[in-house]
Design goal:
This protein is α/β, with parallel strands linked by helices. The chain contains nine helices and five strands; from the N terminus they run βααβααβαβαααβα. A five-stranded parallel beta sheet has the order 2-1-3-4-5, sandwiched between helices. β3 (56-63), α5 (71-86) and β4 form a beta-alpha-beta unit. The longest helix has 16 residues, at 71-86. The mean pLDDT is 83.
């Protein structure tokens, strides 16, 4: 159903990096799940997201400054990793203005965000931490300032649809 599922923190990157990425992928004919356009009124959001992830070939997770402060992003990440183990779902992490080490070890802003979430989400915390650690070991892309190599990234993702 979808070539790519985009997992991202909307306020951080929707109007910038992720918005441009989504447009670049679609311009190349890649079918992208982008949450503001794909969820229909009346749908149960978490169920719709899980179905979209299950019906995607690639999941691109954009780790940004405030990503770990969103329980919704972390829930999606856990579902992505679950499906990546049980079916052919390629997971491509993108580290946008954060380092893989911050994500892996939950240091700095990631550690602080998880501490704030822990009291309300204690039962999910260990699963989220494990998901962050696991995905940070996947081969991915880093964008510190700007995104001059975005076209190369889009071409790379596009190649995954023709190389079977």
């Amino acid at each position: 159903m979808y070539d790519v599922f985009l997992n991202f923190r909307g306020p951080d990157t929707r109007q910038g990096f992720t918005g441009y990425l989504q447009k670049a992928l679609r311009d190349r004919g890649i079918v992208v799940f982008f949450d503001d356009k794909e969820i229909q009124g009346g749908q149960i959001i978490q169920q719709a997201l899980a179905e979209a992830i299950e019906n995607s070939r690639i999941a691109i997770t954009v780790f940004s400054t405030n990503y770990a402060s969103s329980s919704c992003c972390l829930d999606e990440l856990a579902i992505i990793l679950e499906y990546s183990k049980s079916k052919e779902l390629l997971v491509l992490p993108v580290f946008y203005k954060v380092s893989p080490c911050e994500v892996r070890h939950q240091h700095g802003i990631y550690g602080e965000a998880l501490v704030r979430l822990e009291t309300r989400n204690h039962d999910k915390m260990e699963n989220w931490k494990m998901a962050l650690r696991e995905v940070s070991y996947h081969s991915g892309f880093s964008f510190k300032d700007g995104y001059p190599s975005l076209p190369i990234f889009v071409i790379f993702v596009g190649l995954n649809f023709t190389c079977h």
